[in-house]
Amino acid sequence: MSDAELRAHQQAAAIAYLTALHDRCRRRFLQAAWLVGADPAQWPHLADAGVTTSVELGALLPFWSVLCDRYRAKLFTPQSELFGPREPQIERFSQFVHWRLWPLLASENECVRNVLRATGTLPARDRIGPAGALVIYMRELRLAADIRPPEPEDGI
Question: CB–CB of 21/103 below 8 Å?
Fold first, then answer.
């Protein structure tokens, strides 16, 4: 698989990947609200966003673009297919995003809030600030194939 083929997949599937991130963040926020006894009704769009109503994911596209560019630059190795069987590069990318990166972002409170603010799921003065914070986070994240979300603390 070439860089261009992976890029085409990343662009074509962006909404599906970002929908999964939004859903993970929405569920994490709701769980945290219930844990502290907050009334989720104070965020009226939270319960149905992405479930029964659509979510505007456009503000997350610059974040997605940085993620994809960094993945292709740091982790994508098209040469691995030269001397052996074709590696399922799209599957490797998908596993990295769903199994490693999304859990890491959902473990960080500020990332959860920024995803929900950027999409309008949580109220925000503007969506540009939270979306920009996600771009900066992605640019500064130590990107490695083995990144993992932090382990839960004992008793939590």
Answer: no
Helices H / strands E in the chain, number of each: 7, 0
Token pair listed for 156:
């939590």
Say what angle helices 3-12 and 61-74 make with each other, to 10 degrees: 160
Tokens (6 digits) for 3: 């860089």
Q: What burial letters (b/e) apply to 5-22, b meaning 16+ CB within 10 Å?
A: ebeebbeeebeebbbebb
SS percent in the chain: helix, strand, coil, step 5: 60, 0, 35
- pLDDT score of 156 more than 50: no
Cβ pair 20, 28 in contact under 8 A: no
Nearest in space to 3 (alpha carbons), one of 94, 89, 97, 63:
89
Mean pLDDT of 51-75: 90
The label of the residue with tokens 């456009």 reads 58
**Is the confidence at residue 148, as pLDDT, over 90?**
no
The tens digit of pLDDT for each residue in 97-145 reads: 999 999 999 999 999 999 999 998 888 888 899 999 999 999 999 887 6
Nearest to 71 by CA among 145, 147, 146: 145
> Minimal CA–CA distance to 109: which of 51, 55, 31?
31
Predicted TM-score (pTM) of the model is 0.83
